[in-house]
Amino acid sequence: MSRTYVILLTVCAALLVPTATRAQSSTLLEQAVTAFEELDYPVARRALSAFIAEPARATTSELANAHMLLGIIEFSEGVEAAARLQFTSALQLRPGIRPDPSSVSPKIIDYFDQVRSSLVSQPIAVETRYVTIADQRPAAALRSMVLPGWGQLHKGQRGKAAVAGGAWFATAGATAVAHGVRRRARQRYVDETDPALVSDRYDSFNRAHKARNTLALSAAIVWLASYVDALATPGKRIIAPVQVTVVPQYGGASFTARLNF
User: Fold this and answer.
1) Taking CA 16 as the corner, what is the angle to CA 12 and CA 20, rounded to the nearest 5 degrees?
2) Are 101 and 37 part of one and the same domain?
């Protein structure tokens, strides 16, 4: 049965790869914060830009903090237009966000407050907005609890749904067949009256018993992996970036929007 465990470990690894990716994304943000605190703005900017480039792997709060740090960096280097865009994105994600007065100069805080006040009364030239989508994981976890793979299908992960569902149906079906084989082997062992055959009957029953238990454990592992994956990993995209552009023109303005799903 060693091959069975190898296959199960492969399935579990395939299901839980996004969890490792999510951890890498958080590490990237931590590196950016460390570089920012050390005033190493080039390194912090690169890390923050890479972090923001994959919004589906971050939470709304993390993205807002990343935009806030980028805004502070841009303002500190004298690029107020870029700082305004970053502060605007941070406010759209978390309307109550504000720079920390203990670590940011009053000049930056004053400019941030100006940006926040202008969002109500003035149009925005170019900005990156976000569409937040309800977290699918709780509903997906409930579905995977009922049927492995259903939760992944709910999150739009058809490939993972096929892997989890196929593996569970295969192991559960094999468990049912093995249980029938075990029951017949046990009955033959119980009914055997020839002392010369009793040992062989028992060995057959014991092999069938172990095979049934191994397959049942395999099905349980697949079920658990599907449930954990549905609960721990996001769907295709939790936060989708929208590029919104407003170009002033005589007598009006042109408006374009690009939504990335």
Assistant:
1) 140
2) yes
